[in-house]
Amino acid sequence: MEEEQIIVAGLNEASQSFIRALQFRQLKFVVLTNSKQEAKQLRKHGITDVVFINSNDRNSWVPPVFRVREVFIFESSLALSCRFVQCCRSWTSEPIYVITQQWNPRAIYKGLGASHIVFTQTGEVSFLLNNK
Fold first, then answer.
1. Which residues pair with 100 in a beta bridge?
2. Where are the domains of the chain?
3. Whose CA is closest to 12, among 61, 68, 77?
């Protein structure tokens, strides 16, 4: 049976801290990006499991070859985060967490299929891994 992996999308300071927590706990994960430059930068920093999608082209949202355990989307922009939610929801019925510093988009993310909206001012959400 193929191992499940966590998807992390939306690179910012909070997601980078979260990725370090995943690495420390030795949890399997991939980083989802729509930027070839970002993918290149991630690989340069030793993150080899990177999934590139064209967020503007739904036909490019081919489901991954691994089973998705859960998804953590770190809001960088409302539009991109919405597309990541839509893309990931088309891949899995597992929980999708959107981590945001804004109160406004909660209903939008829920409407698109996010399971949980986590509001944080600090960006620290490694507590979400406590049961992993």
1. 119
2. 4-129
3. 77
Tokens of 123: 């960006």
Confidence band for 108, pLDDT divided at 50, 70 and 90: very high
Q: Would you put residue 122 in left (φ > 0), alpha (ψ -120 to 50) or beta?
A: alpha
Cite the DSSP H helix spans in 29-102: 36-44, 78-91
Which CATH class for the 4-129 domain?
Answer: alpha beta
The residues that bridge with 30 in the sheet, in sequence order, are 7
Number of residues that this document lists for the chain: 132
- % helix, strand, coil for the chain, step of 5: 35, 25, 40
Look at the pTM and tell me if it is higher than 0.85. yes
